[in-house]
Amino acid sequence: MFLTISTRGTAATPATDLGYLLHKHPDHAQTFATSHGTAHVFYPQADAERCTAALLLEIDPVALVRRGKGKGRGGAPDTALAQYVNDRPYAASSLLAVALSSVFSSAMRGVCKARPERAAARLPLRVEVPALPARGGPELVRRLFEPLGWTVGVEPVALDVKFPEWGDSRYVRLVLESDTLTLAEALRHLYVLLPVLDDAKHYWASADEVDKLLRAGEGWLPDHPEHKLITSRYLSRRWSLTRQAMERLELARLAEADDSEVEDIDNAVAQETPETEETGTADDTGTGTGAGAPAAEATRTAEAPQSAEALPTAEGTPAGSKPLPLAVHRREAILAALHDSGAARVLDLGCGEGTLLRALLQDTRFTEIVGMDVSARALAIAARRLKLDRMGERQASRITLLQGSLAYTDKRLAGYDAAVLSEVIEHLDLPRLPALEYAVFGAARPRTVVVTTPNVEYNVRWESLPAGHVRHGDHRFEWTRAEFRAWAEDTAQRHGYSTEFRAVGPDDPEVGPPTQMAVFHRHTTPQEEKKEAKAA
User: Model-level pTM?
Assistant: First the structure.
C-alpha cells in the first residue's frame, strides 16, 4: 500500500517544514512495525519549494491471515474468504488507515512543538493514493471528500487495459488537493474515509471504535452530508454502534450550533435515578428532564433536593392519609387536557426519562406518541424503562423517541394533534424563550399545546424551601400567575392560538396552585383546514 503527502513552500516557510509536522526527518528513511507488517516513511523530494512524504506499508500475509482468520472476532470479508490471495498488500484500506494513525499519531493530533504555528496553519496539500478500493465508485469518492474542502481527482482503474470491454474495476487512482486544511485535518479525513470507501475492515469493530470515529471526526463529521453512510461503514454496519455514534454526533452538532460544550447539553441526567413514580417533589414533573429545550439550559435531574417531598395536606384530606404527589396531579391534568382536545397524535417535548410517555402508552386513545429530548442519556433511560426492546410490535409502532433541541425548528414535529411542554420553559434563559416559542407555535403548530410551569407564589407553602429560593437550582425563572398569563396570552396572539388556564394541585385561596397550566388551541386557517383534510 502506498500513499504520498506533498506540500509547497517558500524561502520564508520552506516546504521541508512538513518533516517537523510529521515528526519524520526528510533526510532519513524510517521503518515502523505494525500489527500486520512494516511501515516505511521516506521523502522522494525534500526542498524549500516542494516536499513529499511517502508512506509504504508492506503487508505480512501470514500475520494478515492469522489475525483475520475465520468469520468471527477479527475477521473481515476479504481476508476470511480469500486467505492469502487478496488485494490487501496493494490497495489502500483500513490497514493503511491504522498505519497512518500509528506512524503519524502526533501529526494527526496537530501537535508540533518545533513549528506550532505551521501545525495550526492551512497548507497547500496534495495527497495521492495510486490504488484505492471504492465501493460506490468515483461518484461516492467525490461525495465524501468534496464537502471537506478537497479538489478531487479520481480515475477508475480498468480491469485490464488490454481488454477495455471488461470495464472498470472497483479500484480508483485518487488525487486530493486543498489549500484550506491543516495537515492534522487532512490526516483525520484519510483515517476515517479510506476504510469507509473500502467498506471491509480487517479487524473486529468493537465499542471503542465509536470513540475513535468521533475523535477523528471532530469538527467535520457531524455536518457532513454523508455522515450516516460514513458512520455505518466505519463501524462495519454494526447497528448498535452506529446508533450510539449517531446520537453522539447529534449532540456534537447541537453543541456547535449553540456554541456550547457537549457536556453542557447532555447533562439532564447525571446518573440514572431510581424510578419514583408516586413520590413527586416540588419540581418533580413525573415526565422527565425538560431537556428538549435549548442546549445548555434544559438541565434538570429527577431530584429537587431543596424541595418538599409532597404537597402540603389539603383541607378536607383525611387525617393520616398520604397526600397525592404533585407529579401525579400534574400528569393527570395533562392527560385530561389531551382528552378534552381529542388529540390522538401527541408530542412530549422534553420527555426526559419517559414517565408521561408511559402514561400515554397505557391510554389507547393516543395512537401515535413521540418523545423528544436533547439528552441521549435521558432517551436511553426512557427506552429502558419503557422496555421498548421487549415491547410487542403493535405497541412499539405507537411510540418514537427523537433526539433534538427546541432551540431550532424541526420538520419532524409538524402535523401533530397536540404537544406537551411539562416543566420545560423555566429551564431556559428568558432571551432564549422566543426561539422555543417559534419552534413549537410558529413552525410545528400542533392544534393543541399544553404548557405547565411552577407558580412562584406557591413557594411559601413549601416548608423545606428556603425563602427567596426557586424550586430547583437550574430554574432560570419562576413566574407568578400574572406573569405566566401575560406570556401565554401574548404568545397565543402572535401565533394564532387562544388560551385557557387551569390549576394543577390544590388551589390555595391566597397564593394559587403549585403548578399553573396553559392550554393553547390553534385558530385553524382555511389553508390549514384544507391541508389537514388532505392529510387525513
Answer: 0.58
